[in-house]
């Protein structure tokens, strides 16, 4: 038993944090909110140069052949920065799915560009018609009627939908289920997409962990800076206890997210239970921290001039994405009761 | 990262399990917080010690097995899984012993540890005073210098099981010129000596689990001071952080509670509603979360990091989880919850109501959860003290 990351995993996390601090400050997220996503695209290119976008791709297509355990800390950092874009769909789910279920032609066309950051992948699971970042992606991987499809975005009809998080660029996708887009049929498509769902839930939980970490940092900083009655509001016990509760939720979600990453990476028995625990606790923590951070900020937090709202709205969306707490609690209930 | 137990850890678990299965009494002992129950629990402690299980992580010379922290957690998981008797020696083994290992002299360790672990000499803690609870540094009991030692005077209270103990440990003011946490010294002192009076106090659940200690010029030799004179606060803080952190609240306890709760739920499921079902699932999940949080913490400790104020998060989490679990159990039991131990019709011999009342102490003792939240806010998050 040894529950700690290796030095190279922590170094990669630090690298990603530095890149995002430099290139994805709140102004860049805000610009994406206001329909100017150029800054965010530039961040994607930098992340690709550092190898993060191609992390999960095999080395022969220019990737690093890394696992969920290597990926979980960089994804936490993406959440900390509220980086918009299909990083979960492309890196955690899409590239491994194309590697496992893509035809030779599909692999040839998409893997190297995806690993190099030139092609962005979005994923639509069965019954998930609304897909974030669909319109600006390059290729859609879809699960329909038990079959897998790999469809260039130019062949997908994308009806825009409005997210509470304006950077999510939601689109309702549809396409012709024709044979030319089919992925390999000689593989266990159902199992591969089921694994994709686990990866999506895990990667989303990692982002949620980062989101709540940033919201807590914002609230703590505000509580130290903002003075009322002649002293910082953070000196008041009522504020201290709110923030202490927020930290407890955050810090108890953390090991579950890391545990789930290890379980998926090592194909551990009952890994889906660990993924559900990760998603539940990370989602609950992010929603709780959001609420406490808003209360600590007071009226300024209730405006869209304050950066907090961008993190808060992402947290609300992601806590429900890829299975909300009720869905995952039910999976655990079936396992233990 | 490797979240599987190693082969040697699995072998250790098997060894624990088979000894416990062969030795844990089939009939539960009466509460260890009563006079008769305490004596029976001490017999069990002798047995544990003689087989080398009383303090697995201690050096062999004091009766331990030099187990790693993870092996200790494995032992605890197996201990609670086997429903073995509660540890009446815990105030010595888990609170005083870590202090002795860190600050004690070789003579003290040699003299005190083995009888403590075997239950031959039993120890109570004596921190709180009537007017010094959360604000421990305001304590007023004094120690006066005399030939060859000190004379202790004052009053201590809420001393767990002290009514049945031989010895106690606590802080006394040795320099009355100095205020608050300066001028305090850490003493070990006898409870049956001239000048010492111990009066049992019945707790919420009716057991005589608490005691008040009245001291009038009780003599203590110099050799029963731990650490330096007037440095007691620093020494004591080492003990309190182990009290609120890992020592007493190994995850095995809550995993065992969650398992029993699931079993209870299955027995009564025909009258259970979906909200109760969710609460039972929540209890199991919380126990898992606490387990992995603890494993993460223990890994840090094994790498030589000190845990410090992080232990306050641990304390708030387990104590509030324990209350929720018992509330869920009582909801499942329904109106029969009022049938107390001693009632023939009580569900599980009234153990859930008993456990509920015990759990309610968790957010209060070892530093109230309000104090813990202050510590988290000030020392982890860095918010201003005032």
Describe this structure in words.
The complex is a heterodimer of chains A (337) and B (386). Chain A has helices at 7-23, 26-33, 38-49, 68-80, 87-101, 104-115, 189-225, 237-265, 271-297, 308-320, 325-336; strands at residues 121-124, 130-131, 139-144, 147-152, 157-160, 171-174, 227-228, 231-232. By secondary structure, chain A is mainly alpha-helical. Chain A folds into 2 domains: 7-181, Butyryl-Coa Dehydrogenase, subunit A, domain 1, CATH 1.10.540; 190-336, Up-down Bundle (Butyryl-CoA Dehydrogenase, subunit A, domain 3). With 386 residues, chain B is of the alpha+beta class. Chain B folds into 3 domains: 7-88, no CATH class; 123-232, Butyryl-CoA Dehydrogenase, subunit A, domain 2 (Beta Barrel), CATH 2.40.110.10; 245-380, Butyryl-CoA Dehydrogenase, subunit A, domain 3. Chain B has helices spanning 7-23, 35-50, 69-81, 90-103, 106-118, 232-244, 251-267, 274-302, 311-333, 351-361, 369-380, and strands at 123-126, 142-146, 149-156, 167-173, 184-190, 196-201, 210-221, 225-226. Chain B has a 4-stranded mixed β-sheet.
Fold blueprint:
The complex is a heterodimer of chains A (337) and B (386).
Chain A: H1 7-23, H2 26-33, H3 38-49, H4 68-80, H5 87-101, H6 104-115, E1 121-124, E2 130-131, E3 139-144, E4 147-152, E5 157-160, E6 171-174, H7 189-225, E7 227-228, E8 231-232, H8 237-265, H9 271-297, H10 308-320, H11 325-336
Parallel strand pairs in A: 1-3
Antiparallel strand pairs in A: 2-6, 3-4, 5-6, 7-8
Helix pairs in contact in A: 1-3, 1-4, 4-7, 4-8, 5-6, 5-7, 7-8, 7-9, 7-10, 8-9, 9-10, 9-11
Chain B: H1 7-23, H2 35-50, H3 69-81, H4 90-103, H5 106-118, E1 123-126, E2 142-146, E3 149-156, E4 167-173, E5 184-190, E6 196-201, E7 210-221, E8 225-226, H6 232-244, H7 251-267, H8 274-302, H9 311-333, H10 351-361, H11 369-380
Parallel strand pairs in B: 1-4
Antiparallel strand pairs in B: 2-3, 3-7, 4-5, 5-8, 6-7
Helix pairs in contact in B: 1-3, 3-7, 4-5, 4-6, 7-8, 7-9, 8-9, 9-10, 9-11
């Amino acid at each position: 038993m040894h529950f700690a990351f290796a030095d190279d995993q922590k170094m990669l996390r630090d690298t990603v944090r530095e890149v995002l601090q430099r290139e994805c400050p709140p102004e860049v997220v805000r610009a994406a909110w206001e329909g100017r996503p150029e800054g965010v695209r530039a961040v994607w290119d930098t992340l690709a140069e550092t190898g993060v976008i191609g992390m999960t791709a095999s080395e022969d297509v220019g990737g690093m052949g890394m696992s969920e355990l290597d990926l979980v800390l960089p994804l936490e950092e993406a959440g900390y920065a509220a980086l918009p874009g299909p990083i979960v769909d492309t890196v955690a789910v899409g590239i491994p799915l194309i590697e496992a279920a893509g035809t030779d032609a599909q692999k040839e066309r998409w893997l190297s560009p995806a690993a190099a950051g030139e092609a962005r992948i979005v994923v639509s699971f069965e019954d998930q018609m609304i897909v974030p970042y669909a319109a600006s992606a390059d290729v859609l991987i879809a699960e329909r009627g038990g079959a897998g499809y790999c469809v260039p975005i130019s062949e997908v009809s994308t009806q825009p939908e409005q997210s509470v998080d304006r950077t999510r660029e939601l689109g309702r996708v549809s396409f012709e289920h024709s044979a030319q887009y089919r992925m390999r049929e000689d593989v266990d498509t159902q199992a591969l997409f089921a694994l994709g769902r686990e990866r999506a839930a895990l990667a989303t939980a990692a982002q949620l962990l980062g989101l709540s970490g940033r919201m807590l940092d914002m609230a703590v900083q505000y509580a130290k800076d903002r003075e009322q009655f002649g002293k910082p509001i953070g000196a008041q016990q009522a504020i201290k206890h709110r923030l202490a509760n927020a930290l407890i939720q955050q810090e108890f979600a953390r090991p579950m997210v890391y545990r789930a990453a290890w379980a998926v990476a090592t194909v551990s028995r009952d890994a889906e239970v660990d993924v559900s625990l990760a998603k539940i606790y990370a989602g609950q923590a992010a929603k709780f921290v959001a609420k406490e951070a808003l209360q600590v900020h007071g009226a300024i937090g209730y405006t869209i001039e304050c950066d907090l709202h961008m993190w808060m709205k992402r947290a609300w969306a992601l806590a429900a994405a890829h299975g909300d707490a009720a869905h995952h609690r039910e999976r655990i209930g079936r396992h233990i009761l | 990262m490797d979240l599987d137990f190693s082969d040697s850890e699995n072998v250790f678990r098997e060894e624990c399990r088979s000894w416990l299965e062969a030795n844990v009494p089939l009939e539960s002992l009466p509460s260890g917080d009563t006079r008769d129950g305490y004596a029976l629990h001490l017999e069990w402690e002798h047995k544990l010690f003689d087989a080398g299980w009383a303090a697995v992580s201690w050096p062999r010379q004091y009766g331990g097995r030099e187990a790693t922290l993870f092996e200790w957690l494995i032992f605890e998981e197996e201990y609670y899984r086997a429903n073995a008797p509660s540890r009446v020696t815990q105030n010595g083994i888990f609170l005083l012993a870590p202090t002795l290992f860190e600050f004690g002299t070789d003579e003290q360790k040699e003299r005190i540890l083995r009888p403590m672990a075997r239950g031959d000499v039993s120890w109570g803690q004596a921190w709180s005073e009537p007017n010094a609870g959360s604000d421990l540094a305001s304590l007023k009991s004094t120690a006066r210098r005399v030939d060859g030692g000190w004379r202790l005077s004052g009053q201590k209270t809420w001393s767990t099981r002290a009514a049945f103990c031989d010895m106690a440990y606590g802080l006394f003011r040795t320099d009355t010129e100095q205020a608050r946490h300066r001028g305090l010294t850490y003493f070990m002192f006898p409870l049956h000596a001239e000048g010492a009076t111990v009066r049992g106090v019945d707790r919420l659940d009716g057991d005589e689990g608490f005691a008040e200690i009245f001291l009038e010029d009780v003599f203590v030799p110099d050799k029963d001071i731990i650490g330096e004179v007037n440095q007691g606060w620093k020494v004591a803080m080492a003990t309190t952080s182990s009290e609120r952190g890992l020592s007493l609240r190994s995850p095995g306890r809550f995993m065992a509670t969650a398992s029993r709760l699931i079993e209870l739920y299955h027995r009564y499921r025909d009258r259970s509603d979906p909200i109760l079902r969710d609460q039972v699932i929540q209890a199991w999940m919380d126990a898992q979360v606490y387990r992995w949080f603890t494993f993460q913490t223990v890994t840090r400790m094994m790498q030589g990091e000190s845990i410090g104020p992080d232990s306050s998060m641990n304390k708030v989490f387990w104590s509030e989880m324990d209350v929720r679990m018992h509330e869920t159990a009582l909801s499942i039991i329904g109106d029969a919850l009022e049938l107390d131990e001693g009632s023939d019709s009580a569900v599980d011999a009234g153990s859930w109501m008993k456990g509920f009342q015990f759990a309610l102490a968790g957010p209060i003792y070892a530093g109230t959860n309000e104090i813990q939240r202050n510590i988290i806010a000030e020392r982890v998050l860095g918010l201003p003290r005032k």
